[in-house]
Fold this sequence. Notes:
Blueprint: E1 3-9, H1 13-27, H2 35-42, H3 46-58, E2 62-65, E3 71-74, H4 83-90, E4 94-100, H5 101-120, H6 131-139
Antiparallel strand pairs: 1-4, 2-3
Helix pairs in contact: 1-2, 1-3, 1-4
Amino acid sequence: xxxxxxxxxxxxxxxxxxxxxxxxxxxxxxxxxxxxxxxxxxxxxxxxxxxxxxxxxxxxxxxxxxxxxxxxxxxxxxxxxxxxxxxxxxxxxxxxxxxxxxxxxxxxxxxxxxxxxxxxxxxxxxxxxxxxxxxxxxxxxxxxxxxxxxxxxxxxxxxxxxxx
Length: 164
């Protein structure tokens, strides 16, 4: 049987974290968010998420500001960021899969339908953040101990945090 290659879209962990981060930035009621806050909201490791946010910043999706009033925010409206944009920017991996000729056309069509659907769904379309995530996020801002709130602009050590 003759084999052909077809591109099949898959979603990397980076893409999933990027969508969650953008969702948090779009729907939490605060002008800027520090990396620990976004990590908490997304359940992503902060170091890993930091690299994703750099890529999103370099592509004009998020903005970052240093200093006590710094943090991350969306650089463009959430309704203008499609899920396909996120997949393409962050690294939706395309795998070459050997396929029999009869499946090539069907899978290519399915791939195109998925891409077209992702292009139609914006970050704004994801809707509000679930209450349980939002309450966890709001109750733990900056604080290593949820029972001890920390003033805005301070790091958990009590000093001002200069990094977004």
